[in-house]
Amino acid sequence: MIKSQVAIIDIGMGNLQSVKNVCAHLGVSAHIVNTGMHLNDYSHVILPGVGSFSQGMQNLRERDFEMELNHFANESNRFLLGICLGMQLFADVGFEGGRSSGLGLIPGQVKRIESEQLRVPHVGWNDIRIKKETLLIPKQLAGDYYFVHSYTYLPEENDDVLATCEYENEFACAISRDNIYGVQFHPEKSHDLGIAMMRNFLNLGAPTS
Amino acid sequence: MLKKRIIPVLFLKNGLIVRSERFEDFRELGDPLHQLDRLNDWQADELIYIDISREGTHDLKRDDMKVKSMSSTLEILTAISKKCFMPLTFGGRIKNYDDVNNIISHGADKVVINSALHENPALISQIADSFGSQCLVAGIDVRREADVHHLIYNQGNTRSNKSPLEWAMQVQDMGAGEIFINSIDRDGMADGFDIEMIEQIALAVKIPVIACGGAGQVDDFYDVVTKTHASAVAAGNIFNFTESAYVRVKQELYELKLCVKPYRQVNVI
User: Fold this and answer.
1) What is the mean predicted confidence (pLDDT) over A157-161?
2) What is the structure's pLDDT at B266?
3) Residue B48 and residue B44: Cα distance in Å, rounded?
């Protein structure tokens, strides 16, 4: 039974509705919030988004989310999930749309996929390898997820990497530190595996049965 | 490894799914939400809906469909997106930035646009800048006449003086995220894809190419996957008309050890 107060952060970039739809499918009515003011009311916060890193950070700041999201690092009973650009914004620095500083929640940098051979963006279904089992992504959730991105997260600490994916090179596609989680793929667009992962996120902090 | 996508294309006309043949002959197939249930069960890789209504009004008038009458394309899109846990592309009749904004805010992940990009190429960079390149799939219609490939738009009615290849490179350079190539002369004919033309464009661009037009049997998908650098193979009629065709295509390609996502990933819940 999921009992959580769920917020979806609206930074004006990407398809929020599909994240809200998957929450609804799991029986959770998520609130879309477009200012950081009331973020404290929520136990689970989802930061989705597609688009450029610099624009994403600018929108987060304009809507007063930056400070609020930084508080998450110190809280153990609240959970944050970044999806796609949302995950990338956890980095210290990004290079899309010029160099800009990120939220600095999980040490690392976000850089463009550089390849002569491969098509960029990396679009489609690709399988993930689980490096570190967590409640969010247990071993059973290995499989294909939907990706669409041109930049990847390069984490500083191997220990922050939950799963990797291969597109010419291996890259981190799921990361976490304490109560903060990020995934490069789109669980809300990845059928049953993604829905199961979203359920796991919404159940974080619930008493285990 | 990145999988080759197999994408059902659903044509919507006045709120109903229809079959298309050479862009002209349309037959009603049924209610979009019912189709969606099956495609969800089969864990389709992605869905593309193309609205080909000409009148501009929608009416789900048949009561055997158990769907409330939905008065506009956007309502249909919202209803689809609520149940669509896979990438959702929507196209047809998109004229400008406001149309794109409406479609994205009603739950689509990407838009596929054809004619409006010819009429107003600046729209490409406008969409790419506002929503990201990944959001824009450039639709390219090609008609082969006497062994020459012509670039066609305006629902098959206008011939461009550019070649399909030139246009593909141009939309890429202006910011399109993917290219959807449809062979008009093969639309609904089920006699195979235009492999040569698809490969020529796929080799020339660095963005993903979705090949469409001509799928009639599993071998046709096999050909695109093994003989071209296209990232995805799309088809309409075969998936809508032939019972369980999507599952069959996926299974057979998977068993042939081609790089596709298995049609069903079990193991959870």
Assistant:
1) 97
2) 59
3) 11
Instruction: Enumerate the residues of chain B whose CB falls inside 8 A of the CB of residue A189.
Output: 85-88, 109
The answer to whether the Cβ–Cβ distance between B177 and A191 falls below 8 Å is: no
Please name the residues in contact with B130: beta carbons below 8 A apart, sequence gap of 6 or more.
B97, B101
State yes or no: is B141 an active-site residue.
yes
Q: Which two tokens stand for residue B258?
A: 């081609």
How many CB atoms neighbour CB B252 within 10 A?
17
pLDDT-derived band at A111 (thresholds 50, 70, 90) equals: very high
Q: How far is it, in rounded angstroms, from Cα B253 to Cα B17?
A: 26
The H-assigned helical ranges of chain A are 16-25, 53-62, 66-71, 85-88, 191-203
What residues in chain B have per-residue pLDDT under 70? 20-29, 54-71, 265-269
Q: Is the pLDDT of residue A2 over 60?
A: no
Contact B69, B59 (CB under 8 A): yes
Report the gap between the CA of A189 and the closest CA in chain B (Å).
4
Rounded distance between C-alpha atoms, residue B42 and residue B171, angstroms:
33
Rg (CA), chain A: 16
What confidence score (pLDDT) does residue B108 get? 93
Give the nearest partner residue to B267 out of A22, A52, A140, using CB atoms. A140
Residue A190 near residue A199 (C-beta atoms within 8 A): no
ipTM summary value: 0.91
Contact B29, B18 (CB under 8 A): yes
Contacts of B232 in chain A (CB under 8 A): 124
SS3 content of chain A, % helix, strand, coil (to 5): 30, 30, 40
A23, A84, A165, A173: the catalytic one is: A84
CB pair distance less than 8 Å for A126 and B132? no
Contact: A191, B3; criterion CB under 8 Å: no
Contact: B134, A149; criterion CB under 8 Å = yes
According to the model, what pLDDT value does residue B72 have?
A: 74
User: In this structure, which amino acid lies at residue B217?
Assistant: Q
A123 touches chain B (CB under 8 A): yes
Does B261 touch chain A if contact means CB atoms closer than 8 Å? yes
Structure tokens at A156: 């500083």
- The pTM of this model reads 0.92
Question: Is the CB of A52 less than 8 angstroms away from the CB of B132?
Answer: yes
